[in-house]
Amino acid sequence: MKVTNNQAGPRGINTVNGPVLIEPGETIEVEVFAREKAHIEASKWFDVDGDYTDNPSVTAAPVLKEAAENVNSELESLRAQLAERDAELAKLKADQQQEPPKTAAEVLDMAKDPNVQFMSFKAAASKLLGDKTPAKKDEIIAALEDLATKP
């Protein structure tokens, strides 16, 4: 069927394949289900030439079933990708936990290294200092020096 937008601005229409935007005066060839007819006529936005497509029913079931099967296979593929990602994350976390914690002296060396970013230094310090980790670098260094000198 041919649908023409008779309004001054762009208007959207629900087609069999999804929503379509029609510019003012533009005519497009689309399939529209019969269930949309009342809405299209009530809006008076469009001039329609042609017949509406029958609403989906039992005759559309094989097409819908095939689409549902494709969706299920796509979902299974995505679930498999998520499982792989979760396994990789678990391995990375396990590797990280096996790494022995840094000593106060090692964390202080990180503070002096210009290649180590502050947040990496702060994260390493917070593993040693816990909730008492200060916010500023010089305060963290002082707390680590205090920790390093305690027996």
Task: Give an overview of the whole structure.
This protein has three domains: 2-49, no CATH class; 57-99; 100-150. With 151 residues, the chain is an alpha+beta fold. It has helices at residues 37-43, 61-98, 104-112, 118-129, 137-149, and strands at 2-5, 11-15, 18-22, 27-29, 46-49. α3 (104-112) packs antiparallel against α4. It is 52% helix and 14% strand. The protein has five helices and five strands. Strands 4-1-5 form a three-stranded antiparallel beta sheet. A two-stranded antiparallel sheet has the order 2-3. A hairpin with a 2-residue loop joins β2 (11-15) and β3 (18-22). The radius of gyration is 32 Å and the shape is elongated.
Descriptive tags:
single chain, alpha+beta, two-stranded antiparallel ribbon, 151 residues, 52% helix, elongated
Major sheet: 3 strands, antiparallel
- Our Rg estimate from Cα atoms comes to 32 Å
Proportion of strand residues: 5-15%
Distance between the termini: 86 Å
Tally the beta strands.
5
- Whole-number total of structural domains: 3
Mean pLDDT: 88
Strand adjacency order, main sheet: 4-1-5
Overall 3D geometry? elongated
Class by SSE composition: alpha+beta
N-to-C SSE string, H for helix and E for strand: EEEEHEHHHH
Individual helix count = 5
Low-confidence stretches: none
The helix content is: 40-55%
In short:
Keywords: Coiled coil. With about 150 residues, the chain is an alpha+beta fold. It has helices at about 35-45, 60-100, 105-110, 120-130, 135-150, and strands at about 1-5, 10-15, 20, 25-30, 45-50.
